[in-house]
Amino acid sequence: MRRANAFRVACSIVVLTASAEADESKAKLVMTDVSTLAIDPGIDAKGLVNTPDGSTVAYPAKRGKKMVVFVEGKASPEYDGVGRIFLSEDGAHHAYWAKKDGAYGVVVVDGEERKVEGAALNVLEGIQMNRDGSHLAYLVKGAGSMRMVADGKAGAEFESAFWPRYSPDGKRLVYQARKAGGKQVVVIDGEVGPEYDGIMGGRGEIVFSADSKHTAYAGQRGDDWFPVIDGVEGKQPFKSVEQLTFSADGSKIAFVGRTVEGERAVLNGVVGDPFNLVSRLVFSPDGKRFAYAVRRAFRTPKDQDWAVIVDGTAGKTYSRVHTVAFSPDGKRLAYTAQQDDKTVAVIDDVPGSPYEIIVAKSVAFSPDGSRLAYVARAGGKWKLVVGNKESAAYDVVDETPRFSPDGVRTAVFVAKAGAAHLLVDDIESDKFEGTMGTPYFEGPSTLRAVIVRGSNFVRVRVEVVPAAR
Fold it and tell me: Distance of alpha carbon 400 from its chain centroid, rounded?
């Protein structure tokens, strides 16, 4: 296992040991048990899911040749098999496919079995629940056809259908389908869109704006690709259309369009200059600023010319560019870049200290945009870098550090010498055996986490206690 996953088990299981006495002259972390939940010995950890705040935990478990699903310790009936478990964000609702009599012919919603006509096309991707659990959609396969069933109502028949997805507000449903004869369509809110020879398919390729009011995807006719925004096909064809991206308010749409001359960033229909490669399109949170990375030249994998263009102005040249992100207030831009076999974090075109590796997923601004946090490797060891300050060196640092709501504190799981710790700012907890998920702040100096102690899930509360005066 690498980096953050080195001290996780499958979907993040945590084990905490008793803490040792702390030096009262220093700030410390105090962990208190909140609740305990017994773990079934047949748990299939790969299928374990939990809500973001850890308030609900669900997982499949083996019972001989049968399977059951546990949701907050309560077991389902035995089935021949079960599919992926979906939880609403608040944990109040759950859903999964269940296999009976050799077929996935039952969908279980909040513990209630619902018989369906036909069987699941794909147990992992053929069922979707929206965030609050108020809507459920799944694919069923009949004799030579498929239907999308949304909230119990079957949609139109297609030769095949795939990739159901709900909008951010959970009220709209979109999916791809193939008609008899091979033509492909996108179905949005039950309305079948225009026919194409191909749809830029796959999870996430049909996108919603953050406010859920707008949709975008790419459709192919012959050798040409067109952006399709809110069901309306763009007039200019491209050799490919990728990375469709809305601004947060949905007023702007950008994508990468490939022409004979090269790839171009297209913003609200305005086509930019051609480059060897264009990627990592991003809007500032207020939608006023726009940035993307471009590759001007490729000679060898280690000899390339990359830059980030922000509001039309190109920054310094690097051999590679990775994550590109605006601060929450949109005033600052950060990205990671490679130069001379080292990686740097660049903030407002000013590069920071060089490291062997910076984990792209870890890069995050504080809520006020004043500090940037990321996980970096130096001398074979991992560190959390916040602003210009490095943590101590560890064997592992989790790739998702968290800021407190006020942006003052940071928290991350770390590991050294085979033991895990919680690191809050520069305060290191006593050792424990492993970690689950990521800690989350519920206040400026208090956190929550779900761990595993022995054969139990344990929810703990963590408080930062100032040094005694």
Answer: 11
Residue 12: predicted pLDDT: 38
CA–CA distance, 232 with 193 (Å, rounded to integer): 9
Residues sharing a CB contact under 8 Å with residue 317, sequence separation 6 or more, in sequence order: 296, 305, 306, 307
Calpha distance 391→165 (Å, rounded) = 40
Q: How far apart are CA 19 and CA 17, in angstroms?
A: 6
Residue 123 · residue 104 · CB < 8 Å? yes
Asked if residues 252 and 289 have their Cβ atoms less than 8 Å apart, the reply is: no
Residues pairing with 66 in the sheet:
63
**Pair type for strands 350-351 and 342-347:** antiparallel
d(CA 292, CA 307) in angstroms, rounded, equals: 9
C-alpha 392 chain-centroid distance: 28
82/68 Cα distance (integer angstroms): 8
Pick from 323, 441, 429: nearest CA to 376: 323
The CA distances from residue 298 to 240, 259, 279, 287, 345, in Å, are 20, 18, 14, 31, 22
What 3-state DSSP class applies to 5?
helix
Please report which helix (H) or strand (E) contains residue 66, including its range: strand 66-71
The first and second tokens of residue 434, run together, are: 């492993």
pLDDT band at 436 (very low <50, low <70, confident <90, very high): low
In this predicted model, what pLDDT tens digit does every residue of 8-57 receive, in sequence order? Answer: 433 333 433 334 344 556 789 998 999 999 999 999 989 999 888 888 99
Residue 118 has pLDDT above 80, yes or no: no
CB-based contact 429:415 (threshold 8 Å): no
CB 320 within 8 A of CB 340: no
Q: pLDDT of 223-268, one tens digit each?
A: 999 999 999 999 999 999 999 999 999 999 999 999 999 999 999 9
Do the Cβ atoms of 142 and 105 come closer than 8 Å? no
Mean pLDDT of the chain: 88
Which amino acid does the sequence have at 195? E
Q: How many helices (H) and strands (E) does the chain have?
A: 0, 49
Task: Enter the pTM of the model.
Answer: 0.86
